[in-house]
């Protein structure tokens, strides 16, 4: 009793207590609001995947990535895809669509046999998908994305390496003594004398490490489409500049 009287009575007036309570509750509200607005672990939350990504897999093939796992029957129906030159002209004829993504079921590979002879390299195309169903049965609706045929270091690979790899393999950190923030760096050897990227060799170390379940696939939080990008840039397009 005496302790309580001392604490409340002599040390703090009820007015002061009231003010402390008000300050505290304002502080708690501000923190709660900050958590709601930013998300508790905002820096670790990944940006949502784009609805549609497309990139060449070879001179005659295009990889298409959805943001959801797909129903195989509708994903492999080639009539649900259209490829039209951005500069105008007839749509390309697609002979097959194959769900190639063994991990998430989100990547479809389209084959365009005419491109073997016409080879429209470094040309902008609009890819439109319609009515492809997700694995849970809902339609993905109509989606469209523009991409440039062929894979080169300057586009789209440089931006890809910079966003996925260079925070650990760049100016501030050189994990594995390896840098991915320049073309010369990518072709460098890192911890030994063997180049990590070898033009035309998709079994070189940089590609193997980006395979699903391997170390860089996990560290860089890649998708199957990302693995296809680095593998095809090195294998189908000879790691060209
Ligand atoms: C979160 C950090 C991190 C990210 C992101 C990352 N790496 Fe690494 N990387 C490492 C570490 C740590 C090592 C060394 C240990 C090892 O070899 O696994 C390494 C090693 C490597 C090596 C072997 C180097 C050598 O010569 O020994 C290659 C090749 C490589 N990374 C490629 C990549 C590519 C390509 C990407 C982007 C798709 C990437 N890494 C993203 C951390 C990272």
Give a verbal description of the structure.
Helices cover 32% and strands 17% of the residues. It is of the alpha+beta class and 241 residues long. It folds into three domains: 2-44; 52-148, Immunoglobulin-like (Sandwich); 157-235, no CATH class. A four-stranded antiparallel beta sheet has the order 1-2-5-4, covered by helices on one side. Strands 3-6-7 form a three-stranded antiparallel beta sheet, with no helix packed on it. A hairpin with a 2-residue loop joins strand 1 and strand 2. Heme C binds next to helix 7 and helix 8.
Q: Nutshell version of this structure?
A:
The chain has 241 residues and is α+β, with helices and mostly antiparallel strands. It contains nine helices and seven strands, in the order ααββαβββαββααααα.
Strand content: 15-25%
Structural class: alpha+beta
Shape assignment: globular
How many domains? The number is 3
Number of strands: 7
Per CATH, the class of the largest domain reads Mainly Beta
Low-confidence stretches: 1-11, 35-43
Number of helices: 9
- Largest beta-sheet characterization: 4 strands, antiparallel
Going by CATH, the architecture of the largest domain would be Sandwich
Radius of gyration: 26 Å
Termini distance?
82 Å
Overall pLDDT score? 89
**N-to-C order of helices and strands:** HHEEHEEEHEEHHHHH
Helix content: 25-40%
The CATH topology of the largest domain turns out to be: Immunoglobulin-like
The neighbouring-strand order within the major sheet is 1-2-5-4
Name every ligand kind in the structure.
heme C
